[in-house]
Amino acid sequence: MINVRAARPHRYDLTVALTYYLPYTSGLTEVARTVAEGLAARGRRVAVVASRHDPSSPVRERVNGVDVFRAPVAARIGRGVLSPGFLPLAARLARASRAVNIHLPMLEAGPLALLAGRTPVITTHHDDVWLPPGRLAGPQVRVVDASVATALRRSAAVVVNNADHAEHSRHWPLMRDRLAAIAPPCRERQPAPATFREGPGPHFGFLGRIAPEKGLHHLVDAFRTIEDPAARLLIAGDYSKVAGGSVVGALRERSADDPRIRFTGFLPERQIAAFYSSLDVFALPSVAEESFGISQTEAMMMGVPSVASDAPGMRVPVTSTGFGRLFPPGDIVALATALLGAATLSPRQRAEGGRATRARYGTEGCLDSYDALLGRIGAAGRVTA
């Protein structure tokens, strides 16, 4: 068992608790990492506690000013992990902090919120838990939902990416009176050479986890209805370390006879700007609710319009800026039409859309909001259950 010694109260200003952290990559992980490292750069003492999902990762390390603690994993259950040491480790760190930030959904969220003692709890609600259909999916969702509900009742504040998504959550009644809408941090990337382009035809692309809920089978099917031989579909993202399993095999089979479709695999940070610069349109065809869509917004900031499912949360970057198209989730014909329509935007429209997105979303504004929230919560004293 990891020994974490809380030598004095308020060893940390903030402890961040979540299941997966570096080296895992997902939208949720990136939000937690960017906020933790950003607050540390502003002088706050920050710890992160997560599972040691990758056995090669150290049990404890300091990364960009953040103390990272990892609890060993005993077993894996679908997308989740069983880590008996995680809860006691997280609880000790939470009690030694001015505030604890629990990222939801998480199985241990409710017990952790209760074991935090007098420490104020901030929950960041990314999404309602979603699992592919299966015999055990229903019971697993109910267990996690009950834990999430406990954490929300114990929260001094609930951070959501936008009210649109929160209002459609199963947990909305527990969030509405303590809501703090803070858009996730989106990185403003600099223009880069379009090294992923393969000719003059329209290039459509996706960047994210190659997982079932992303609706990439709809994107492949929609693209295949586009007859332009010079068109390209670039699907980028990790498919080797996806919690719960990847669908890349099924997608490859679906697109095997179309040489215009390319799977790039995981992209390191240094290649992401080049990927966005290579696109005419970004696509976010998710079939399960996304609370925002950081990758689509970062592409939009670089002047690439987004085509997104017209669903709570993920539609907000498009509706708030007018930069892109929406389509009914799962509608292949409407998706193809939206892709072709967005590809016709002029350079002037793309420049204006990029400026509008950069003005609305960005890392510093997110950090300002978290910093202010920590100040308010820290001054509030003890939070009652």
UniProtKB/TrEMBL annotation:
Pfam families: Glyco_trans_1_4, Glyco_trans_4_4. Residues 27-184 form the Glycosyltransferase subfamily 4-like N-terminal domain. It comes from the Bacteria. Transmembrane segments: none annotated. Keywords: Glycosyltransferase, Transferase. InterPro entries: Glyco_trans_4-like_N, Glycosyltransferase_grp1. Coiled coil: none annotated. This is Glycosyltransferase family 4 protein. It comes from Streptomyces albipurpureus.
